[in-house]
Amino acid sequence: MSKTSLWHNWKNNTVATACFNEDGFGDGYGIFVKAVNLTAQHDVFKRYIYSSFWGFQQISTLTGNLVPSYYVPEVIFTKAILGSGLLLFALLIGNIQNILQALGRRKLEMSLRRRDVEQWMSHRGLEDDLRRRVRQAERYNWAATRGVNEEMLLENLPEDLQRDIRRHLFTYIKKVQIFALLDEHILDAICERLRPKTYIKGSKILYDGGLVEKMVFIVRGKLESVGEDGIRAPLYEGSVCGEELMTWCLEHPLASKGGRKSRIPRQKLVSNRTVCCLTNVEAFSLRAADLEEVTGLFARFFRSPRVLGAISDAPFCENLLCSAPVMKKLPKEQSFS
């Protein structure tokens, strides 16, 4: 009898092929009932895919659909899968719990902050319009910072890391014509004094007749500058408000008086433009006092011909990245010391 005839007779023998049926010798195979027919597949890709599916299924169901035989290694293997599934499930529950606790903690902090603000507004008797604007500013400030105090976070980092982070955050200050000429150590001194600020829609950063007491670097949002003549100029990400304050500090250096440096109280920089926020705005501000300190510390560098030439050529009328307000002189009785 040929091999072909033997193979044909064996396939037609119900007793011989019963091992491939789950109703045949299934009880003897235990958890490997599904694997018996898999061995008859010649496609390696099918074997791999089904084996992976079987493994994920047993871990996810904690071997809930497996009935092992009395074979000890098979029982140990089933227990190993069960233990692995329980461990992964416990890790999943733990991570979900940590996430929920973190969200709850943030929500609690925000609720406490909101309650304190409401109590303060009630104690001070603020009007409804002011209360609405305070609530809006608090919501936007929380959304912008995620409740994280950036200044405190940076203070706890090493000095070199602080410097590198500030250089990354404030690369846009080199867009200002004068700042583009400064050395790295002077820029680092300026970056150390920049403070994050948020403004809500409708807020006025500068207004006509008000003192220019800070430079504002726009990070996100849209603004509009309106001059006395009614000319409107848009401001956007990367723009700067109050850039002429730099020129003012250089043209009016601190004078020594009684061993201390002080500015002669004769005139102040006043804006003849109104800069209003069209959307919520994220920005960094540099106060006039900090700018004066930097120009005083590096006065020798700022008096160099290159910097003085840039100051004299600064096209304020042509918009130095912003429609910058120009300088006025306050009447003598309105001057500040």
UniProtKB/TrEMBL annotation:
This is Cyclic nucleotide-binding domain-containing protein. GO terms for cellular component: membrane. Keywords: Ion channel, Ion transport, Ligand-gated ion channel, Membrane, Transmembrane, Transmembrane helix, Transport. The chain crosses the membrane at residues 76-100. The keyword Transmembrane helix applies. SUPFAM superfamilies: cAMP-binding domain-like (SSF51206), Voltage-gated potassium channels (SSF81324). Signal peptide: none annotated. One of its GO terms (biological process) is monoatomic ion transmembrane transport. It comes from the Eukaryota. It comes from Sphenostylis stenocarpa. Residues 178-256 form the Cyclic nucleotide-binding domain.
